[in-house]
Design goal:
The protein has helices spanning about 10-25, 50-60, 85-100, 125-135, 155-170, 195-205; strands spanning about 35-40, 40-50, 70, 75, 105-110, 115-120, 145, 150, 175-180, 185-190, 215, 220. It is of the alpha/beta class. It has 3 domains: about 10-75, Histidine-containing Protein, Chain: A, CATH 3.30.1340; about 85-150, Fe-S cluster assembly (FSCA) (GMP Synthetase, Chain A, domain 3, 2-Layer Sandwich); about 155-220, Histidine-containing Protein, Chain: A (2-Layer Sandwich). The strands form 3 sheets. Strands 1, 2, 3 and 4 form a 4-stranded mixed β-sheet that branches. It is flat and about 50 Å long.
């Protein structure tokens, strides 16, 4: 019989730890976020500048051991100098051009009331993510709708699997994690000890040329 030892925290300890993680994260201002905890469920309150920061705050809280779920009641109120849509559109194009990892000539953008919609095609999920990241924190941008499509170069499933498997073994040499490939669609499987490691495994898979879809079935153990 295998015994699993768990570390239990009180709501007060979880609240303290989440607040400490927020305080040390330079993306957030002091006292920008309120934290309430009930039965391991964290509720975030307050006002942030972009929709992206709502996701970042939830991700940060989720990474704290002891947190079961995160409920976000954050609202968005852009700060700083207001920019009109044409100015934001110019900044978006500059950001895409300046990012060497983004094939900007294959990406179009539209801006309406600070909401940026990206369209076009890229080779892999990594380029798609980088395109969204390049513009998400620009002044005046409140939301990015990333509709960029992935059109990967043709590769055999065996080649894709070999590359992903080798990359996963380099990142997690002592962990039980594997993948399957079906016509360029990846399914990640196995167990990892933390949510950040699970996200890193997903990033590794998306960075592989030829991948157009991904399902992450890795369990946190």
């Amino acid at each position: 019989m295998t015994l699993t030892r768990r570390c239990f925290k009180t709501d007060q300890q979880i609240q303290r730890d989440v607040r400490a993680e927020i305080a040390r994260d330079l993306r957030f201002k002091p006292a920008e976020l309120g934290v309430e905890v009930d039965g391991g469920v964290v509720t975030l309150t307050g006002t942030v500048a972009t929709f992206r920061k709502i996701d970042e705050a939830a991700e940060l809280a989720t990474s704290v051991p002891g947190v079961r779920d995160v409920a976000s009641q954050l609202t968005v109120a852009p700060t700083g100098t207001l920019r009109d849509d044409p100015a934001i559109a110019r900044a978006v194009r500059d950001a895409l051009e300046w990012d060497a990892l983004v094939p900007e000539e294959r990406i179009d953008s539209a801006v309406h009331h600070g909401v940026v919609t990206l369209t076009g095609t890229v080779d892999d999920g990594f380029q798609r993510t980088m395109a969204g990241d390049a513009v998400a924190n620009l002044s005046g941008v409140v939301l990015v709708n990333n509709h960029v499509r992935i059109l990967p170069p043709v590769r055999s499933d065996a080649d894709i699997y070999d590359e992903i498997k080798a990359a996963l073994q380099r990142r997690f040499p002592f962990e039980n994690v594997d993948a399957s490939v079906d016509a360029g669609a990846i399914t990640l499987m196995g167990t990892l000890p933390s949510q950040p490691m699970r996200r890193e495994a997903e990033r590794v898979a998306w960075a592989t040329h030829g991948v157009y879809a991904l399902t992450n079935c890795i369990v946190i153990a």
